[in-house]
Design brief:
- The protein is mostly helical.
- It has one domain.
- The protein is built from five helices and no strands.
- Helix 2 crosses helix 3 and helix 4 (94-114) runs antiparallel to helix 5 (126-148).
- 30% of the residues are buried.
Amino acid sequence: MAVRNEVRTSRWQNTARALWIGTGLQVVCLLLPLLDLWVFGSVENHVEAAYPGWDASEVAKDRDAIVVAVLIIGVLGLVGWLLALWAVRRDRAVRATVTTLFALGLTTLATIAGAGGDPYDQYVPLWLGSTILVLLAVPGGAAVLAAWFRDRDVR
């Protein structure tokens, strides 16, 4: 009997790697609005530029609303990454789950990065929205590609 010395990889190993990277970057993206709130203040400057006549308490309320909205969307995104990892681990509808969550996430991120209203060009400052969009679109796209074009020799 011949002994094989080859290493078998998981069926969805590359997909899982991309999803883990995306999960880590999602945590970083959750910290970005908090870092801006505590250090940079660009969201506050963004609100002040849109409403120059507001006092500090009104600006703080709107700033907090924007930061909380980005955080809620970020937590939902984290749930999406974890759901996709669960699908990979269980080997259940991986392609459908990863593709659907990527489409939903990319649509949501593009909306928050570019949506604006009456006094705002964008609700979320451009640097914050576009940074989050780019940081999460890359591993999401890689996960979709890995799910659909995986190595055919791996079982």
